[in-house]
Structures
1.
Amino acid sequence: MRLPRSAQIYIALVCLAGTALAGLLGALDARGLAEHASPAVAALVVLAIVGEFVPIRVFRRSAEGELTVSSAFAFALLLAAGPATALATILVASVAADLHLRKPFIRVWFNGAQYAIAMAMAWAVLHRLTDVPHATGPSFLPADLPWVMIAALAFFLTNALLVALVLALAQGFSVRDYLREDLVFVAGAAGMALALAPLAVLAVDFSVLLVVTLALPLAAVWRGARQALELEHHSLHDSLTGLPNRSLLRSRIEGALATASVQEGRGLIVMLLDLDHFKEINDTLGHGHGDHVLTEVAGRLAASLREGDVVARLGGDEFALLLTEDTTQAEAVALARRVLDAVSEPVDVEGVTLRVGGSIGIAVWPEHGTDVDTLLRRADIAMYVAKSGRTGIELYHPDQDRHTPARLSLAGELRQALDQRDLLVQYQPQSDMVNGRIVGVEALVRWRHRERGLLGPDEFVGLAESTGLIAPMTLMVLDASLAQLRSWDRLGLDLNMAINLSTRNLLDRDLPDQIHQRLRAHAIPAARLEIEITESMVAADPDRVSTVLRRIHALGVRITLDDFGTGYSSLANLRDLPVQRLKVDRSFVSGMVAGHQDAVIVASTIDMAQRLGLTVVAEGVEDAGTWEALRVAGCDLAQGYALSPALDGDALVGWLRRRGTGHPELREAA
């Protein structure tokens, strides 16, 4: 993660100051190493070095840190052997441990420098108030104990302040707030260890064996602190994968937001990943296999990210990724593709080869949100768009958001409109292109909004789908349409009725029974009802949708494949689905006269469909030229403004009476 300039300057100053003070202490106590050499001092040196290699890892806010007991033995060396011995020991221990962990050079330097400054502060207090360590006799006397404790406090506070400052500057937190929370936490372990340092000095003065036995209570302190911190670690990490959980992820995002800076074309990135087909693994093979897959995926995600990035498990088969460096959207998408490629690699579990895919939603700070909740929610929205559309990766766009305050308000109004019958159905006629006879209509729902006027389906059908209102709305349209057919029957009009279904309708296994019940209630033959679907609906869940469609077809209801030629078009659907009609999309129909390619596509589609025994309907016929082109191409049925806009039931009857029964009187679109 790129550090703020203030943090970089601070680190540089600490490194330089620590280096200078280390040199000064070495010069002032040049003979200290030789004068105080003894087996007991050597034992303290060994314990200090060992203590640095067994740190307790802790998490403070969004940063990872360490606590060690080495500082207790280093301070004991200051009391027993002087500053040169103590500083040399803690520097060797710190540098060796950091190099072993392959920490960056600047962190190695900073850690050593902070110890040098803290040791210099403690020595300054001792040098000013006492002459510890005494040249002869015990290293310190009972009268020196208050000053020794003040020196220990100076060592502890200096060290804590230096660390708190760099973390606060790096993460944008208040130093005062950081210290207020951290001092109590650190004092519990590090402070207790330092308080035992004078006992270590007394042991040095008495026997080297006592120095070794002193390690036992310190080990108990270390173990108790480690167990407490492990409990805290478990509260912030997923027990199965070891990844950060939702709580720690929020903290990490908050820390990253505090230091993020706006750069053109770059930002902090939040991604949500949901695994595809994971439920089938759990249901078929059991949770043991599922847990193995989750663990493997977690490792692959961690390996796919850059240093400083964060991967977390939110629960179930959902993961989150935080790209902490300033990243372009193109770089984020490219990384997301690498993540999906890694996730999609086969996983071998006890000889069974398993595969999972994934869907990723991406939200970018500050473009898509400036706080944690907004970024997570919008990444979640984009992820569900990717999952439902089977696109794999989606970048958030406001058009995807179904949960803005305005849309939530509109959703409440839509529910009320359903209850108060403010939704109405209009009917657009379909004409036989050979004899001009009106053979059917398509039912189109409208919303008579009390403030915004008459709203078309594009403005509220998507909202109905996302709020669960699409099922009652579809049944309302079905009831109204069948009742209208019955009313027209009494007038001697023999028309067919086409209604549109949504993806959620086709996933409802009760839909065939509901259609059958309403056909019987209105005494309408099933052959006069036609449902229109799109291929994208089939793609949502092919097996389930196919089952529902076949049951509807078994009733005698006709099925039309709408918007053919766009999106998910596949000849396999024409072969495998119980389709009787094919509807050519208006985007091709409207360009037939002006564009040769569109005319060829439409003509080829008509020929292919008719060879398969399907009836072809052209929608969006806006003018006489297009109508004639379709007639020449052999299209069966057409609808559009060249014939008539959608009309309510009574208006359609009046239009039919004025029109007569001959060929259509075409008009140019207004």
2.
Amino acid sequence: MRAVRSPLPPAEPILRPPRRALFLALLVLLGAVLSLPAVELEAARKLFISGAYAEAIAAAREGQRGQEGEPQWPQLLGEALAAVGRYPEARDVLLRGAAESAADLPIRLVLHRALLETGAVAEAAALLTEMDRLGGTRQWAYRTPEQRVALGRVALMVGGDPKRVMELFFDPVKKETPEFRDAYLANGELALAKNDFALAARSFQAAAKKFSKDPDVWFGVARAYAPSDSEATDEALEKALEYNPNHTGAHLLRADHQIDSEHYAEAAESVAAALKVNPNLAAAHAYRAVLAHLRDDEAAEKTARAAASKLWKKNPEVPHLIGRKLSQKYRFAEGAARQREALAFAPDFLPAKGQLANDLLRLGGQDDEAWALAEEVTKADPYDVVAFNLVSLREAIAHFRTLESDHFLVKMEPREADIYGADVLALLERAHRTLTGKYGLTLREKTIVEIFPDQKDFAIRTFGLPGGAGYLGVCFGRVITANSPAARPGSPSSWEAVLWHEFCHVVTLTATKNKMPRWLSEGLSVYEERQARGSWGEQMKPRYRAMILGEDLTPVSELSAAFLHPKTPLHLGFAYYESSLVVEWLMAGWGIEKMKRLLADLGRGLPIHSALATHFAPLEKLDADFATHARQLARNVGPKLDWTKPDRRQVGSEAAVEKFIAENPDNFEALMVQADRLLDAGRWVAAKGPLKKVIERYPEQHQADSAYARLARVHRELQETAEETAVLVRLADLAADATEAFQRLMELAVARQDWPAVLDYAARYHAVDPLRPEPHWLEAQAHEATGQRPAAITAYRTLLQLGPADPAEVHYRLARLLHAEGDPAAKREVLLALEEAPRFREAHALLLEIVGDPR
């Protein structure tokens, strides 16, 4: 299995080779630690950390007057002035302070950022060169924790090896001066810079144990968890803002998440809170530009861009941030354009290169440039996890085969392409005919579909990092990525349903120019799954029924947030299901033409709430009416059953269950518990009672392990074949992933020589897992028995790729069919059969028939 890049490979030089010897010599001289700053300085810095910036500025000015020549005072003053957006003033203060402290690195680091914020890019570059020189020539001057951490930061800025920096600077400071917070922050920030969020989380969580009221530490925790755990991120942001209400980074990270959840008004408030502290904060104005773009307000976007670039005209971080957020909204073309703009400002700006690589891969058709960019990032920064994983992925999928049809390019692992690639193309073309016709859309380019047999490769291609185990497929617009059945052993699901779902995204995203809320996009795709086949897509189940009638039903106006902050994987599945119910309800009440007009208006930039009100009803009414509809739908599920959940003690033993059922004869859970106990005891006849009762009162059970599956087992154990078959047929029609039922139905059909039924259930099995040999074996027999020789030949050849239990028999049957077709390949197949089983008499006889009997 291909390894995923660790952020800390074997050590390399810290700085560029000319500086290596000088920096290594520093280790000998880093012995004594100077005294900590005066108490007054500590108090002033606490004011700064807590967000009392005006007080910190006043204290720093006073401190400067009392302790001239102490660089930490102008450094603090410069930081505080920068925090409130007074960048030119901060720059001037820091320039004077740095001039008075010829070798101090911490103040120069702050000055470096102030120079950039005021657009003095050349001066900042010269200062970085100076800091590099100082680090290599004045080792004796850098002994305090502040100086040593600053030394490590400089080493990173000039290309030093991250592992060495941590080992030589940050980690020793943490060990020798455990109360020095900056070492912890530097460690965590380094991990974040390399996209190693797990390491960042460990670093910041360790810091949080020591500095439990430090807002910067909690901000680091929030950033570390932002890609994976929204609840942990929100909790950390709450703490950061509790300890520093003016923490602009925390306000903007909150805005970032609010944009993701389509809470745009709240995001604007968070951005405004940051700008109230720092009216010149470029990132805040960049977020304003994002919000303006998302509401199609070109004038406001232009104004926000101008404000973001007011002091630093060619700040690459501004277009990079805007582009990243647009790409997260599936505006990949706009996002890629912003990254190109960032690279025009700064050709070596690696974040923009990495983001552009991902954008181009998601746009499709520009893979060569994307891979080249990923290579450039990896060469410049071997520790960037996302870039390294992309480069490794390219090597892993280089052997994929491309299959082509009228409207699709499908990339698959060659063996899988041979086995079910033709079925993939046929399914996709059927989806294309159905959905483009239904929504009145013409797709001008072929859709690219990539199917991965390794879940890790799928995750890296889709998200940049391993993870995303709950995802079966993802659509980016023109590009679809999906897991193959091989990527999810033990978790059967219909790959046909997944591809149908994802292609529906292609249609609806194209129709809206990617300007649709997630709930509507997912709701339409799940709805169209069920339209294609009743057993596909999310279905009502007992747990969903309870969630609808409980506290988990989300208003239509807030549905997109349900995807961003699901409490559990079950809640995420419920978000898909509820969204599909909304779509189903809208379609039933207003019709497809209204939905098409809604999509068209979204494509023109109309906000979703306005579009819903225009074509359906005011949002408040939609919220209320849909809630009524959904709850009535839930109440109609098993209306004669008692859905109350019994206490554990009430069903904890056989006697307790019997007593509870005597008093509550229609309780769903108690009946199922009783049935399972009877099954475990082998009391087959007795188990029929509760199972039949549940099925009678709740016939629409779509789970593969439902009461139908249990009742089928009962009939099989009692050798009641007709009854077993009837129950399994019903189960197979309700559950698209009931592979055990499909297999058993094939076996029963073979026994009665019902070959059409064998082919039907073999096809259903292949739609879930085409990589199992048994269904292909039975399918081949069915084709052979009905005289469909070409289809039987194909099935036997496929079976041979899957490792059949009796390869000699398969080779023999294939040879027999090929010989009947006059195909000379029959001789090779019969010889392979004899190689497997040298005494195989029928194969010997067939070989003589093929070559002619010399006797």
3.
Amino acid sequence: MTWETLAASQIINTLGWTLAYSIWQIGLVAVVLFVLLRLVNPSAANFRYAVSVIALLISLALPVVTFVQLTGADKSVYASSTISSYDHANRSRDSDQIGDRSDIAATDRVQRGQAVRSTTALYSAVREFLGANLGAAMPFAVLLWFLGVAIFSCRLAGGLWQLRSYRQEGIEPLGVDWTSRFSLLCQSLKIGRRVELLRSTIVKTPIAIGIFRPFIIVPASAFLQISPSELETIIAHELIHIRRYDPLVNMVQSVVEALFFYHPCIWWISAKIRLEREFSADNAVIEAFGDSHIVYANALANLEEIRHLANKQMPRIATAANGGNLMQRIQRILKIKTEMKRANSAWSAGLAFVLISAVLTMVFSFNSTSLVNAQSKTGNRKVAIGFVSIPPLDRSENSPKDSASTAKILVEVLRAHKIPAIGFLNGSQVSDGEKMYPVRAEIAKMWRDEGFEIGVGGYQHIWFYDTPFDDYVANTEKNINIANKIVGDQGQSLHYFSYPYLNTGKSSEDRDRFESWLQGRGLTSVKYTVDNNEWMYSYVYDLARNDNDVNLMKETRMAFLDYMSKMFDHYETYSKVMFGRDIAQTMVLTPSRLVADSGHDLFGMIENRGYTFVSMSDAQSDPAYQTAEDFAGKSGISWFERWRMKQGQPLLDEPKVEPAVQKIWETKKIVKDIKKKVS
């Protein structure tokens, strides 16, 4: 088909005129929508969303109707011109035979004048006028339109393909806790369809995809860097999108944007739909969760920071939790409640908005390298961190230099997060009881000089259960003497003792007797509420470092962070069940290379759960630590479990260590024990 034939094609011309008319038609729809949105209260998000969607559908329907009408009009014009030609020929023959018929000519002129004054004639006259000026450009305009539609269709197809990859690649199984949470959330929001929640290492912000088989995909980092209560509101937001079939609307939007890519009003209408859709979903979340506006607003801010630092945009076809104008959304979320609260509540919400606004200003103004330093802190939880033992244990082939390096990294991380940690000295690492080991002693002094408190454990890290009372006391006293040489240089004193392995002896009598001995030396034992098997992950991480197994190191870090997040869920549940509130927590860690290397992520996760880092004395001043307990046995367990057992209540199921980590640790431990026996 030649260009001349194509240019003369009636369909091409009709399509060209349809596109031309769509400019003013869609523009008129946009003007009407603009007026309506100005008249409707901004709080009526559902109505504003519905009106915007209707405006988009009308914008799609008008060009379709126009094309159909123009196609029919063209056929009528063709038929009319054929009949007119036939009549004209007959009249010409009659004129030749009869002569000049002036009365017929006059009548014809009157009829033509009436036709021009009719709507159809006016429509034809306008088209004839425009056709004389624009008609030649129509084929070129249609060609450009085809090219634009092709380009935007490819973009749409690419987005669909990317969403498909999200559903198949980088997917990780959810833990039992989140599976249960999600099921309850679906029930509370009355989700009638089956929706699947997935955890992904690829996506960087939660998204809802799928029309007939919906999915909610949440980045794995969100489970670590956002508190469970905040993440629940984000997931609820996505469930509300699915409940209202917003992914279908979003698909229609994407198609209309591809068809009318040339029209700025289409993009404006579509942007309004996306904005009002998020406002509407936000309203539904606030309504579902009650007094959760601060939590939800903070969750959106944290989520946007995660996405910003990842520097990754979601496809437009995806319904993402941080869509729309984020600052407007947060302002509305807080304003919704401030209008319903009294002045003091309004002041609190306003202050929260100022804090979150400051966070987002930092996010969009600077390329921060540390997630946690830019997080807003709206929680009032407290946690103290205790490290056993100082200096770090040497599992590398380059000790003790590697131990010094680990200590320096850890100190930098603690200073960055303003954590007033306490390190419990392992005397056997720094002295034989008489002389100091210079390098390791300097590590302990560096900890002291950086302003971190030093406490004591045993000279040897031994079990109280397996050690006679007098030997256990002597082991501790030897460690106190060594520790005093380190802290005494700066005029400091010792205040806290940490039971090795959290084991407090064979009987409550032995423990009470030892506690009295500690008090006589001005020491208080630490009661750890957040116990964990971090040391097991650290052991595997050190093995991977020695083997230079980068992949295993990375996998161990991710598994460790996920595990620690679950442990906080676990012990926070204990706190709520036993005390009806968030008590000040105390967490035990080893100063391992794993903790040092993943410190920013670990402590960032803790901060994002609403915790403030406090000293051990501050944490243990919480009245909860006066709760009675009398546990005695071979194991070492959390004080939550001790208090629970004293009350005769069953213990909660504790999160399990990653099976692969458990297997590596057990295998290596067996080999190590055999070597000891052989030697």
